[in-house]
Amino acid sequence: MTTAKDIMHPGAHWITKNDTLEHAARMMRELNLGALPVGDESHDERLCGIITDRDIVVKCVAYGRSPADCRASDVIEGTPRWIDADADISDVLSEMESHRIRRLPVIENKRMVGMISEADLARHLPDRQFAEFADHVYAAG
Hints:
- It comes from Kitasatospora cheerisanensis KCTC 2395.
- The protein is α/β, with parallel strands linked by helices.
- The protein has helices at residues 4-7, 21-31, 53-59, 89-98, 118-124, 127-138, and strands at residues 9-10, 15-16, 35-40, 46-52, 83-84, 103-108, 111-117.
- The radius of gyration is 15 Å and the shape is globular.
């Protein structure tokens, strides 16, 4: 059985919901990432969202706001989705497809231990299965 932990990109670089989007963008550049988990600093890194490079552009810059003045909490929305490290890859795909998400935090013992991205899926899935995933996530509607 292939698990979430088997295919994830290990490690977790966090920002807090009070960090600026400028700080998030710099971290993304330095770490070559397109997304960062957002933690609630008052709850021992409790996952409260994920911020993407697209969020910074669409929800801040496109409105004429400065990333130096916007906080992560200004752009994160909804309840973050995640998967247990021991979950089967079929559960990973189901979670990502049903919520049409491209990145999924992996949790073990209540701590984030990694992230699964489209690139991780592309490396570990047969081409046909990855194509089906992409069809579900990118389908219009």
